[in-house]
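Attaching the record inline, Q. Sequence:
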Amino acid sequence: MPALPSPCIGLALAGGGPLGITYEIGALLALEEALDGISFHNLPIYVGVSAGAVVASALANGFTPAKLCQVLVLNQSTAFPVNPEHFFRIAWRRFAHGLPTLPGLLLKAAWQSFQNPRDISLPGALVSQLLSAVPPGLWDNERINHFLTNLYRSRGRTNDFRKLKRRLFVVAMNLDTGEITRFGAPGQDHVPISKAVQASTAVPGLFPPVAIDGRYYVDGGVKKTVHASTALVAGAELLICINPIVSFNPRLVDPQQQKSLTSLVDGGLPAVMAQATRIVIHSRMKAGLARYANQYPDQDILLFEPSPRDADMFFARIFSFAQRVRVCEHAYQTTRTDLRDRQAVLKPLLARHGITLRTDILAERDRRFNSHLVIPPEVNRLAELQHPVTNELSDALDRLESWLVERQDRSPATGNAK
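Structure, as predicted:
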């Protein structure tokens, strides 16, 4: 495991579906350009939960926020084209597997209702029996594993926790025990990174649990929101957290905008369920961060997230790909505003860790997330090299070149003077 530098800066990313991935990339673009002294693709510690595991694993593999934006937001990468099927393909095989059991389940439901007509009605018995034929997940999440496996095959990347130059923890929950597993930690680092991310993104009901070493895992956000303690225990002196999902408070909205808003009840079941889920997730995270402030008084935690008055983020569809560019820009501007508003507090805190807040960049009001996307040539070059044989050959040539240069430097100077 690589040694930790000083200051040791960690990054913890929470979940939020494709919307969360896009939001986190936009926030990272804003932070990367405004925080001088930090490179988000070269941090010592990364923690990823659910959608945050996708972003964290890519950063730990050397993808810059700009490169992630090119691949996942703008979809401009010919090597790694992104389409919704990578994340949302209906699990037809699982549904088909349950079809042959339907006649037997219908007969069983009818028999239950006939035997106990006072205890269970026929509709109730039918619902109870038919639910057992429904697969454990609506979508097939094997595509996520496949996409990330290809992404990390390129030269300079790896799908092996043990070969990373940085510490990466991908958090998932054991479905049967409720215990948290931190893939990437000692004893859990033999699992392929892509498989660990597949498990961490397995939202119950939407994706089936993922089998690893005979155990079944689901979304790590079921138990905790951001798992900041994982990075703090690992030694992060400054931990930057990004949480894309917050509850919405209509009373905080600007009165001029409030006229266009209706009660959340009028939004029907989706709005009510979204608000209830977000309240649980966000309040749990706030309580955890407050507790960590007391448990780790010598370590600093910075949280970046949408405002509770942010109607755009609340009403955006979490599992939509169509809004990627708009959400990325929104996250970028939200984070820049947050940095400006908190600069009096942030400047001395960041300075303790050798980081300077670029107020000159924050003052540029017309700046956009894609205005200054800079992708180092070596990052683009590495991303295009995917074949393992050519990758090994290129690595061997690089080692040979380094050896020749070193040998030349050590050789005594010779001349032809007579």
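Residues 413-418 have pLDDT under 50 and may be disordered. The CA atoms of residues 43 and 129 lie 50 Å apart.

More tomorrow.
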